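Changelog note: in this version the structure field was regenerated for every chain. One regenerated record is shown below for reference.
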Amino acid sequence: MNPFRQLLLAHGAKVPIGTWVSSASPVVAEAVGCAGFDWGVLDMEHAPVDVMQLLQLLQAVGNTKMVPVVRVPWNDAVTVKRVLDVGALTLLFPMVEDAEDARRAVAATRYPPEGIRGMAGMGRASRFGTVRDHLRTANQTIGVVVQLESPRALARLEEIAAVPGVDALFVGPADLSGSMGHPGELMHADVMTAMTDAAERAEAVGMPIGTVGGTPEDVTRYRAAGYDFLAVSSDLGLLMRGAQAAVQALRNAGSRAHVHTLVEGTRTEGGG
């Protein structure tokens, strides 16, 4: 079974927690995997990651229990073929707008006769030709998650979810907020209403649905809205938040020490 599909089934009431890997660093990806996340997105859409770098990220994460999901830069069969050949098993497709987009995504991940994936027998996906019957069995191991990022896509949620081969839906709150006229306001009331409605409709058709939040507080709200798998921030986001907090804490501590020195000096000068 596909590892991400298995993760969704195994957790039941416990929500799988993930994050984004945007640094393009295998070391950071491995460290994030060791932090305890259930799954993580290796991003090729908004991160400087090419196919060789992706292979290295997959190798790094393979040393951890974190299940990798690769977000491809676009719904493009050539890119998908190369990403699968280096061993990706679950793909996240951005900007899926309708059922036809979803069908094209699934077809790109399947060998014929179920799809259009070009056949290769000696790549990393087949463990360099050592996996028996790889070309006959690979289709069963591939997972497809489609990203809905506009009101148009959300309006077609049921028809997208009904496409054979789609394993889960994912709502992208950043692009959704922009397409709704609230760029950067991910928690805007209108955006949250649309996202809550999407979660309820996905549950009604029995399709897992996920999203990502910038903070644990945001993720908690998404969980309350009915989302089944959730990501919090990214490796860079967590790094920057921790770094900025450390700098601020030290600057504040320095200010307090400076004030204390001034006060003590005044006392000494006054003979106290």
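Spot check on this record: The first strand starts at residue 17 and ends at 21. The longest helix spans residues 235-269.
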